[in-house]
Write a structure and sequence with these properties.
Elements (H helix, E strand, L loop, with lengths): L4 H18 L7 H8 L3 H7 L3 H10 L2 H12 L5 H29 L7 H27 L9 H20 L7 H12 L3
Helix pairs in contact: 1-2, 1-4, 1-6, 2-3, 4-7, 5-6, 5-7, 6-7, 6-8, 6-9, 7-8
């Protein structure tokens, strides 16, 4: 019995994520991705226009699930600090999986050959995360738990950027930040006291 098409697409994304996580964008060959996925190279082109589109899809393919998980945390009936700690743990988990790809994007941008459509998708995704996380920070400001010296949007951007900083530590072989380090730093920065 033939595998469903979505299974092939998923296997291609999984294989490509593995390849992009261990090799530079330029060094990843679609022949190797196809071999890892157990499909013919031509099958990749049934789902993706080129390597750049496949790279973008590796970055965002599970975003809906991650977005929902973050939404569940933000919607909990708990203090903003408790929810922030859970959000840090979720973001750390996501960066454990996506970190090498994000790191390549940071290192290679603007030379990374991503189409304007791909860049728009990535930008829109990041904007959606900022908007989502901003709600938590606004709730913390409104409840008096967080200081208003930063806007909720600024706090959300700082939150995202601290994980990019964690990647830079890894890139330069500097002791990486733990989720506890990140949480403690954010609380010190945003705390009302």
């Amino acid at each position: 019995m033939a595998r469903p098409a979505s299974d092939k697409r998923g296997k291609i994304i999984s294989a490509a994520t593995k390849c992009f996580s261990t090799q530079s964008f330029q060094d990843v060959k679609l022949d190797k991705v196809a071999e890892e996925a157990g499909v013919a190279k031509g099958t990749i082109y049934l789902y993706f226009r080129n390597k750049e589109d496949l790279f973008c899809e590796c970055l965002i393919h599970d975003n809906a699930d991650n977005y929902q998980r973050a939404e569940d945390i933000i919607s909990e009936k708990a203090t903003a600090s408790v929810r922030l700690k859970k959000l840090v743990e979720l973001q750390d988990e996501i960066y454990q999986k996506k970190g090498p790809l994000v790191q390549q994007m940071i290192q290679m941008a603007p030379a990374l050959p991503i189409s304007p459509d791909g860049m728009k998708i990535l930008h829109d995704h990041l904007r959606r995360i900022i908007d989502q996380h901003s709600r938590l920070f606004q709730q913390g400001i409104d409840s008096g738990e967080f200081s208003s010296r930063f806007s909720a949007d600024q706090m959300a951007v700082i939150f995202v950027q601290i994980f990019d900083l964690k990647l830079k530590f890894q890139m330069f072989h500097i002791q990486p930040l733990t989720p506890e380090d990140i949480f403690d730093s954010l609380i010190k920065m945003f705390d009302q006291t």
